[in-house]
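Reopening this ticket.

The earlier resolution said the output was attached, but the attachment link was broken on my side. Pasting everything inline this time so it's all in one place.
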Amino acid sequence: MGIPSSPVLKVLSEHFTLDMCVSRMLAGVQMYQNLLEVLSSRASGLEDLKADLRDLLNHINKLTEAQLGADYSDQNPISDLDSHLQDSYSVQVAVHMTLSQLRSFCHDLNRTFRVLITYRP
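Inline output:
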């Protein structure tokens, strides 16, 4: 259907650094923001979620600039999801799949934020 998988968030270690973690967090939020942009042109009721993702992205960007001094630009290519949305059924399936994946990704984000609160380099 053209819906990419969420970036994998792992426990911080010497092989999965804070920089890698933040990069994947941003990539995931940006990816879902882009997917919802496509889907919202075909389905209603996604505007509040788009606004929440935009706010989350702004907060993560502020955190990275303050803590890491890093700047992450949009890391996601434009999805080809739009070309797969031929009828209302495919739109409904895409919305369902995207929201299910987003829920799982947000659980991972929440877990990661809890770990980052106690993280000391």
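Reporter confirms the inline version is readable. The two ends are 41 Å apart (CA to CA). The chain has a mean pLDDT of 85.
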